Amino acid sequence: MRATLTVLPGDGIGPEVTAQAEKLLATVEKVFSHEFHLSTGLIGGAALDVLGTPLPDETLNLCLHSDAVLLGAVGGPKWEELPGNRRPEVGLLELRKGLGVFANLRPIRVWTELSAASPLKPGVLAGTDMVIVRELTGGLYFGVPRERRREGGELAVVDTLHYTEREMERLIRLGFAMAQDRRGKLTSVDKANVLESSRMWREVVQRIAHEFPEVQVQHMLVDSAAMQLVLNPRQFDVIVTENLFGDILSDEAATLTGSIGMLPSASLGEKGPGLYEPIHGSAPDIAGLNLANPLATLLSVAMLLRHSLKLNREAEAVEQAVMSTIRSGYRTRDLTDSEQPWIGTQEMGDKVCRFLREEV
Ligand code: IPM
Ligand code: MG
After folding, report:
1. Which one of 8, 92, 142, 241 would you pick to mutate in the ligand 1 pocket, going by the greatest count of ligand atoms within 8 A of its CB?
2. How confident is the model at residue 116 (pLDDT cuts 50, 70, 90)?
3. Looking at residue 155, what is its pLDDT?
4. What average pLDDT does the segment 179-196 reach?
5. Would residue 223 show up in a list of annotated catalytic residues for this protein?
6. Which residues, including other chains, have CB under 8 Å from residue 55's CB and lie 6 or more apart?
7. Ligand 1 pocket: which residues have CB below 6 Å?
8. DSSP 8-state secondary structure symbol assigned to residue 130
9. Counting atoms of ligand 1 from 1, which one is nearest the CA of 74?
10. Any catalytic annotation for residue 350?
11. Is residue 247 among the annotated active site residues?
12. CATH architecture of 119-257
């Protein structure tokens, strides 16, 4: 197959981890005889530095004309003082909006070999396997007005939590469909005891539930969900929730697995290219030091192969190669305690490529 892919390295450790993804894609091309045409674009701080904007038009156009987009990370202390509308993160939000990728899938899986790195007791952690389906292009992230204003003599501020019914429906329906394909359990997370938006969300969930009679639905308040994630993570199959709640809960859930450096994500729309990125951020403190864990990005490549290119066998082979790398004892620094030896970002990328070549 031929595919056109856009890689957006971004900031911090982004370029290092996407470089490993490019190596992996080249290996997949060779091993499975595909042809991937890769282009690279600027986003985030890297784009601000060169072009003065966090999402240049040419980057968005490049992405819109691709089969899929792979992103490293955006942001860093260098750009922290910039006004809200010119921060690197705005580039990512505009890209999500521009691609219409309303559904963010964040699979949280525990790697038994890495369970020592988890803050949870092994007995609590064992068997944890969930997907967080997060709404990605609505809610507080995009609502207007969002501004500071004078009220009387005082400074005040407003952010807006806005959703249309259609925005809720399409995301919730996708959550149900995923639950149906998995273990048949959907947990919808909201704050319906306080927020009107959450009460409407709950109604939409209840209505769509009729389309999926075999899925068992549960409503959970977000504060309680935050607690249940550490008390009994095994209970969750698919969690469906709005943008901000999903952002917060997915970092919490990611940490359960030992390292946020292991977790991939896929952002999908109704049509058009999907956006794939590791959940971790730009980690400026370790940028350029060959210390970053590239596995979240390599697993994001597996999601890209599966969801955007429909290459299931290739996706599984990549996941298997990552598994073999871990099983063989290779670790980046984030996955070790101080005693264990570790290898660098590039070496980890090389190991996964080697296992892929050897195992297929
Ligand atoms: C994420 C990140 C982003 C978000 C930031 C970088 C804007 O935290 O993808 O979870 O909040 O969506
Ligand atoms: Mg986040």
Report:
1. 92
2. confident
3. 98
4. 98
5. yes
6. 43, 47, 90, 91, 92, 94, 95, 98
7. 75, 89, 92, 247
8. E
9. 6
10. no
11. yes
12. 3-Layer(aba) Sandwich (3.40)
Give dist(CA 152, CA 113) in Å, integer: 59
Q: 185-190 and 2-10: which strand pairing? A: unpaired
Nearest residue CA, atom 7 of ligand 1? Answer: 89
Per DSSP (E only), the strands in the chain are 2-10, 35-40, 68-73, 103-109, 129-135, 143-151, 154-160, 185-190, 216-221, 238-241, 264-268, 274-278
Name the residue type at position 34: H
Residue of 30, 223, 285, 310 with catalytic role: 223
Span 68-106, pLDDT tens digits: 999 999 999 999 999 888 899 999 999 999 999 999 999
For residue 257, how far is the Cα from the chain centroid? Answer: 15
Name the CATH code of domain 1-107+264-360 (choices 3.30.990.10, 3.40.718.10, 3.90.230.10, 3.40.50.720).
Answer: 3.40.718.10
Instruction: Determine the Cα–Cα distance for residues 332 and 338; give it in Å rounded to an integer.
Output: 12
List, for residues 1-10, the tens digit of each pLDDT value: 999 999 999 9
Query: Can you tell me which atom of ligand 1 is nearest the CA of 251?
Result: 10
DSSP, collapsed to helix, strand or coil, labels residue 246 as: helix
User: Is the model's pLDDT at 337 over the cut of 80?
Assistant: no
pTM recorded for the entire structure: 0.95
337 noted as active-site residue: no
